[in-house]
Amino acid sequence: MTTDPQTTSPSKPSLWVDFGPLLIFFIVNFSARGFTDDPTLPILAATASLMATMPIAMAWSWKKRGHIPRMMWASLILVLIFGGLTLYLQDETFIKLKPTVLFTFFGLVLTIGALMGKPLLKYLMDVAFPNLSDRGWLLFSRNFGLLFLFKAGLNEYVWRNFSTDAWVTFKTFGFVGLTFLFVFTQMPMIMKNTKPAKPTGN
Fold first, then answer.
1. Distance between CA 147 and CA 152 in Å, rounded?
2. Mind listing the pLDDT tens digit for each residue in 98-152?
3. Are 112 and 146 contacting, i.e. CB atoms less than 8 angstroms apart?
4. pLDDT grade, residue 63 (50/70/90)?
5. Mean per-residue pLDDT for 8-33?
């Protein structure tokens, strides 16, 4: 019995899909400083690039994985709304608020869902841990929800107390690093609550 490699490892291109638009956002913000003396133009150009590259990343996800993660849809909608307001009003505050809104939404949904006994994270990223037990998903959902709420508060602190360039750098690398660190700390719980894989016939 053979399987399609795209269905057995659907999360393979996720690093580029998830990190690519952010990296371009970072590069455009700092590269634009060499072409203008306007302090607001770089973040506006970076915002426009983020709005343009996210649909490309989603198309790449569809081509390689056959689906687009629900979290990416939510992020795209907020990027278009808050990015559009940023460009229309020439006010970078809106794009800085986007992570806060996104993280707060998912944080509340996952945390409240876990309190109600519903492991909602399973429906967002079940392909990453296909053998995780229901109890494992419940714990993972609760913990991820708390992480999202922490990241929402952290985003508010950084953009309100540091420069735009510092916020862009932190948004690009800080949140990604924090998420990787969080998942690493969850591995003992994940392994403890992972069911043995079912054998497949030839």
1. 9
2. 999 999 999 999 999 999 999 999 887 756 787 899 999 999 999 999 999 999 9
3. no
4. confident
5. 75
Task: Write out the residue range of the structural domain in which residue 104 sits.
Answer: 11-192
Query: Is residue 1 in a domain?
Result: no
Cross-strand pairs, 132: 194
Residue 176's Cβ-count burial label (10 Å; 0-12, 13-18, 19+) is middle
With the CA atoms of 122, 128, 71 and 124 taken in that order, what torsion angle do they form, in degrees rounded to the nearest 10? Answer: -10
Euclidean distance between the first and the last CA atom of the chain, given in angstroms as a whole number = 4
DSSP summary character for residue 160: H
- In the chain, the percentage of residues whose pLDDT exceeds 90 is 64
Total number of domains in the chain? 1
Query: In a 10 Å sphere around its CB, with 0-12 CB exposed, 13-18 middle and 19+ buried, how is residue 125 labelled?
Result: middle
Q: Is residue 4 part of a domain?
A: no
Task: Extract the tokens encoding 84.
Answer: 């559009």
Asked whether 50 and 81 are in contact (CB, 8 A), the reply is: no
Handedness of CA 68, 73, 75, 77 (dihedral sign): positive
d(CA 168, CA 28): 10
Residue 201 pLDDT: 53
